[in-house]
Amino acid sequence: MAATTPVQAPPRVDRPGPEPVRRSGAHVPERSYVVRPAPGAVPVLGHVWRLWRDPLAFLRSLAGQGDLLEIRIGPKRAYLAADPDVVRDLLQDPRTFDKGGPLFDTARRLTGNGLVTSRYADHRGQRRMLQPAFHAAQMPGYTDIMIEEFEAEAASWRSGEVVDVRQRMQALTLRIVTRTMFGELASEATIDGVQECLPVIMDGVYRRMVTPTRLAERLPTAHNRAYEQALTHMHEVIDRTIADYHARGRDEGDLLSLLVNTRDPETGAPLSDQEIHDQVMTMYLGGSETTANAMASAFHLISEAPDVEARLHAELDALPPGREALREAVGHLDYASRVTTEALRMRPPVWLATRTTTRPAELAGRRIEPGTILLYSPYLLHLDPATYEAPDRFDPDRWLPERTTRRQRTAFLPFGAGNRQCIGNGFSMIEVNVALATVASRWTLRLAPGASLSTTPAASLGPGPLPMTVQARPRRETAAPATAATAPAPAKAAPASAVPATAGPAMDAAGTARTARAGAAMAATGTAGTATAAAGTTATATVAAAKAAPVPVLAGTGTTAAGSEDVCPFQRTAAPGPDSVEVAR
């Protein structure tokens, strides 16, 4: 085993050399770091075999081994940031440690130059143009769509039946993304096509991420053919929808309208159709599987913790009935927010990420050369016993403000941090809370008899197939059914023109049969129609609605999920410099 080498953070003086060295960590008191090779490397392969065979076990084995660990991927050397402060330094310097490495390079071939995969030079402008779509003023319209979809799904279940919760959550998140993206252009045929294609695409992306050579993806295998066909169809759906929008020539009040109508605040230039295509593909990949995995993991963890389930039910049972009440309450579900936060800690969908070094730098006192690949793992940080007591225990109350520490808040990274923090984190938090509220208020879920479950690392981390038996809970009294004469129209997201360009950020296999069953069940229980007030199409109306539906808070972290008022702990530690862009407020 290699010797452990403590490295003292050097004084802040210039290092002689042809290029200046970028030092990280000016905001952290001087400390000693442990920098060493990760244990377990074998000749020739290095750590490749352990990463391939059981990446989660390998990552957990690195807890306590050091602050910055050298990882060997065949002949190549990379570094894994394994300490929360070191990860903070990595993520707060996006110009030096840019998006890149094998994970993002593979994703870039799929999404093009979208927000998630774009380099530093392009990202700042893209984020400015896209942030209005995730402003708090837009959330009430999105929330209405979420509630409608989850209520329809929950109404379609039958007590005693076995439901693949992971598959149903995937189908629902895809429907929600499609409807918020395309609005009235989101036909059932479009939704069905996306639902068929995207799981195949995500599987193909992960296979390409973990395969060390591109030779395998050129072979005429069944997997490769299915991936190429699904990708081609997905591109056709997006291009056809963009063309349909141009043909209509009017603002539909959806995300696509905002993408088409937005202008760069500095140049006034619009997005090209290819740029719009790349952003739509990015939102599909970032807004469906990761959120579905978060929901599925939360439902499974709740089912294994009866005390947590009872407290969640008590909070939900105290809500007034009706969709409007739920929309107003979704940002105030205190215990549900802690449940969501704890589920994201234990099962972070984004479990491993990479960066590439663009210029000479120092990290944890070690000189990092340009071109060096750096990794960080929320999974490793979230389950480190040095940070979280009993990390395998599902304990939502660990996020009570009086119980959390600075280290715990710093280590909690389900959405990343800094100016590359996920722009849709507020959207996702609302979606998970809506899922918990609509499903858990009606049903208890238990893993089906004989089913086995394992956490599955792929493009995102989730439970894989999750067959659960649903049992009806006692029904609460519902509101009087809406009639055609009295029910207001469903709220839509505000048109792009309603939000200033400088505003801040932010079916399953049953298909039509599921919709028919849901419609019948909703009609029978008096919940047909959309009993919500329209959000309106002016900035005044959308802002007023936003006050009634605040963005949920990541419990115990002091962070609003949209970064709207209280930004993430990483950003509170230092004022933004010329190379950083704060998550817009």
TrEMBL record:
Q: Which residues make up the binding site for heme? A: C422
Record the organism: Streptacidiphilus jiangxiensis
Identify its protein family: Belongs to the cytochrome P450 family.
Q: Which Gene3D superfamilies match?
A: Cytochrome P450 (1.10.630.10)
Keywords attached to this entry: Heme, Iron, Metal-binding, Monooxygenase, Oxidoreductase
Keyword Glycosyltransferase attached: no
Which cofactor is essential here?
heme
Q: Which PROSITE patterns does UniProt cross-reference here? A: CYTOCHROME_P450 (PS00086)
Q: What is this protein called?
A: Pentalenene oxygenase
Feature: compositional bias, Low complexity: 479-493
Compositionally skewed regions (Basic and acidic residues) per UniProt: 12-22
Q: Where is this region: Disordered?
A: 1-26, 474-493
InterPro entries (UniProt xref) = Cyt_P450, Cyt_P450_CS, Cyt_P450_E_grp-I, Cyt_P450_sf, Cytochrome_P450_Monoox
Q: Could you cite one Gene Ontology molecular function of this protein?
A: oxidoreductase activity, acting on paired donors, with incorporation or reduction of molecular oxygen
